[in-house]
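Hi team, as promised in this morning's meeting, here are the two structures we talked about. I've kept the exact order from the run log so nobody has to guess. The first one is mostly here for context; it's the second one we should focus on when we meet again. Sequence first, then the predicted structure tokens.
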Amino acid sequence: MVSRIGVYVDGENLVVPIQQELDEEVVKQLQSDVLERISLKHLTGLVIDLSGTSVLDTFLARKLFDTCRMARLIGARPIISGMSAGMAISLIDLDFNPGDVETAVTLEDGLLRLRDTPKFDLIAQSDDDFDAEGDSFENLVKGSDVIDGDTEPKADDPD
């Protein structure tokens, strides 16, 4: 049986305090648990805190950072906290690239950053949100074709 890492919810954020040495099976189970919890509870933030562990090799670091990227894909803002100077030096010496995952010195700092993140609403939720010059949501949609997420003017559009 694979041991599990305890996680807890703090407001809209999932907190994952790593308090043990990790192996491949534990990390795989952790990825599954984190993504499932974020999805089911519609959480908007994730902090993985490494302050309780002293060893992190490049394989396990890559898996944890990949978990953060997966969390971002399903709508949560991920932060890794508590990485020691020794871990950071070792990972960089081994040419590990953390990519675009945000880091924080402490778990508390990570949670403060998540709590200070502004919540954005949809800019226009109905036709009432547009101005009186005929810019309705329907007119905007009719006026363009969407191809791979980009909008391009229709052929009969004078612009």
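And here is the second protein, the one for discussion:
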Amino acid sequence: MVILASDSPLASISEILEAADVLGSGAWKPESSRIGRTMAQGDADSLSQDVFDLFSLLRDRQVPYLLVGGVALLRYIEGRNTKDIDILLPPKSLKELPEIVIAEKDGDFARGAYRNLRVDLLLTTNPLFRVVHERHATTHRFHEMEVRCATLEGLILLKLYALPSLYHQGDGQRIALYEADLTMLIQRHRPDMEPLFTAIEPHVEPGQLHELRKIIDEIQQRIDRIRPAFQEPRSPNQHPEPGERPRPNEFPTGFDMGNAASKPVY
């Protein structure tokens, strides 16, 4: 189950933002139908209208944007919390959007507000952002309109690209969040990672690419240790199909899960 199902109302986005703002990290749950009611009802309605008007503005002015970040992730996974809307677009498009008040601009990033919405902007002056913008776009059908957003592969590329900088900054909280996002995306959708490593290679240092591969290998090992709830154990005489990964309860004889050292994440 994902939160942003096809044909869901745009108000779903405002509910996610309200939940994060009012109740803090981890507040949003798929079963909550109107968690934003913990806000004053007028504020909640205003935020919902702001979301609708922002995406109407982007559509009507034919801005070539992509929805990315935490809200876009909810197209593919559940339970992600976020307080803002992240949009990837060409820098020249900012001239077409004077309603977004820019508070801060730093290279390929900008931060601003549209009425009561916090808006983070990723600009295609960054070559990797431009690749995502040009090659990894799709649409998500809300009840009111279609919204352009990044594909699964585009979101993974953005997460991978951000990690070296986060490690350099020592930002442990965001590192944990981004790696958790990657874990959920990979576990749910099993993307082919090699084309993504090929795509990101020109945009990171060789040593950084090596470390990214290690991180993904560790994520994959972690996923392989998780036994899906729907997976029935094999009978003693049932063998894996050719090329199939071993199931988590099929480690080689002598592998003691209880004594296994925890592998550090780099």
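Starting points for discussion:
The first strand starts at residue 66 and ends at 68.
Residues 41-60 form the longest helix (20 residues).
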